[in-house]
Amino acid sequence: MPFRSHRPVPPLQNFIENFWLYDGYSSAYMRERIFPTGAFEFVFNLRDDELRIYDSKPPLCSRYSGALVSGPYDGFFLTDRAEKASTMGVHFRPGGAFPFLGISAYVLANTHIDLVTIWSRPVEKIREQLALARSPEHRFQLLENALLTRLRRSLEHHPAVSLALHVLHSGNSRVLVRKLVREAGVSDRRFVDVVRAEVGLNPKLFHRVQRFSYSAASLSFFFTRTTVTFENPSSNVGGRSFPAIRRITSSSTIRCRRRLRSRHTSRGTSKNNACTSYP
Fold this sequence. Notes:
It contains nine helices and twelve strands. Mean pLDDT is 78; it is low at 220-250 and 267-273. The chain has two domains: 3-154 and 257-266, Jelly Rolls; 159-223 and 230-249, Arc Repressor Mutant, subunit A (Orthogonal Bundle). 34% of the residues lie in helices and 18% in strands. The protein is of the alpha+beta class. The protein has helices spanning 116-119, 122-132, 136-149, 159-168, 177-184, 188-199, 203-217, 222-225, 251-266; strands at 3-6, 16-23, 31-34, 41-45, 51-54, 61-64, 67-70, 77-80, 86-92, 112-114, 236-237, 240-241. The strands form three sheets. The chain has a six-stranded antiparallel beta sheet. A four-stranded antiparallel beta sheet has the order 3-8-5-6, with no helix packed on it. A two-stranded antiparallel ribbon has the order 11-12. Helix 2 (122-132) runs antiparallel to helix 3 and helix 4 runs antiparallel to helix 5. The protein is globular, with a radius of gyration of 18 Å.
């Protein structure tokens, strides 16, 4: 079968939606648009030690190793069909990746980096083991074990984050973040900081992404037949208008991202190089 999914064992299932596997995947399109969900993704190419990501504006190609971290996005990006022929990954629940990162999730918002940047060299061995495994069940078990050994923090959200995820993940357009702050019993600044650190997006932006994702999911044909994007202020999904989302980051976050990208580049992977044409 070209696609398989797997629900992980406790305690992972509280933070991970599923493991997924494509083997023999094909598509009529050269590139596929990935819309935002507000969640992290770990992706492993099981054939080649490379993955390519195309930015939405301008259409620049970035090369990464075959083990990739995709942070939570507030807009779409494009993937290479040829490299999805044999891939597997971890689809985290919103806010679910933070125990496995070792750094603030906010640093990785709207960002792709090599997994080796935060997990070090054992990542290469993990990818090789996944590629050599003969059955989907064995691959899922290997990935499960790898995640259990890489836990960096307690598997518990800050109470304010648990409240935010419970309410904002619903897609309810009438939620007011300031009311959540009062319910959480923390200051406005503290509420934003803890949500950013564990989820990767600020509360209002996360809520907007969830509304978009909720509306898109209600239309089964949306992902293959529409050209609606976050960057288009007139985009309308399900009768609702979603204005363009601004990407505002603090200077300390920008510095941290530069350090990560510097480490990424020093490992021999170049950013925004022209990619090889499709076969």
